[in-house]
Amino acid sequence: MESKRVVLITGCSQGSIGDALAQAFHRRNRTRVFATARNPSKIAHFAALGIETLQLDVEDEGSIRTCVKEVEILTGGVLDLLINNSGVGYNMPLADVDIAIAQSVFNLNVFSVLAVTNAFLPLLLRSAASGRDPVIANQVSISAATPVPWIGIYGASKAALAHLTDTMRVEMSCFGVHVVNLMTGMVATNFGSNTKKAEQGEEATLPTNSIWTPARAVVERCLAGEAFTQTAMPVDQYAEAVVKAIVEKPGNPPVRIWKGASAFLVWFARRFMPFTFLDSTVRKMGKLDEVARLVKIANSR
């Protein structure tokens, strides 16, 4: 059986949060990291760092089974930390959402997490039985806890994942497996290129018949992530903080880890402030006052 703590992270494409987490865990002593991604070419840079890589498409059952078998062979059948980091964004007002795209977002952000976790569960349970205090950490988002405009489908998928993670934590406590919500704020990564529109080689633009047409220029700047990239936390700083929070209390990790720009603000507001406070904050972020003014002018003509 592997003597080092075994960590597997999904969604580790270069420049991503998963990439930074893999490197941060690798810098820890007595840790063996498996960085995974759907496209092996996007994790080729790990070879120079001495980090092991595996191909894993979290939406493909065959790929998941193969990855589990590889980890089982390489480690003697244990997994100590599973970081479900894969995810995709979708920037679009709810009134203009493509339902097929929305369903695909939920498939990746919610159901694939459950599929991967259940597939690796035998290894995690073996780790728990050996007293290795395994941890499952799911990459949620502060958008699960606040109504950020223009990304409602993404936020809803993350809210679903947050609830799934909380329930998983309660159920898995019977087996000595710890489960953590990563309530991640704004982090400087290439996540903007990992939206459903970007995957298709398209910019996030409003449909021609959108009710937001009078404010099209403003809304589309928001869809491009203009408001969210200016104050983002450096990804390496975020990764180090998350890894420290997970490993500094073996056997008793936090239920939720709030890291990234605006994460503390959302935590504080949800705990101590009325909902109107968060509403006013996200209205400013989403330029909703300006949008409302332009819509009102157009409707008065």
TrEMBL record:
Gene Ontology annotations of biological process type: phosphatidic acid biosynthetic process; triglyceride catabolic process
GO cellular component: endoplasmic reticulum; lipid droplet
Entry keyword annotation includes NADP: yes
Molecular-function GO terms, alphabetical: acylglycerone-phosphate reductase (NADP+) activity; triacylglycerol lipase activity
SUPFAM superfamilies, sorted: NAD(P)-binding Rossmann-fold domains
UniProt protein name: Uncharacterized protein
PROSITE patterns: ADH_SHORT
Keywords: NADP, Oxidoreductase
Lineage per the UniProt record: Eukaryota, Fungi, Dikarya, Ascomycota, Pezizomycotina
Organism the protein comes from: Exophiala bonariae
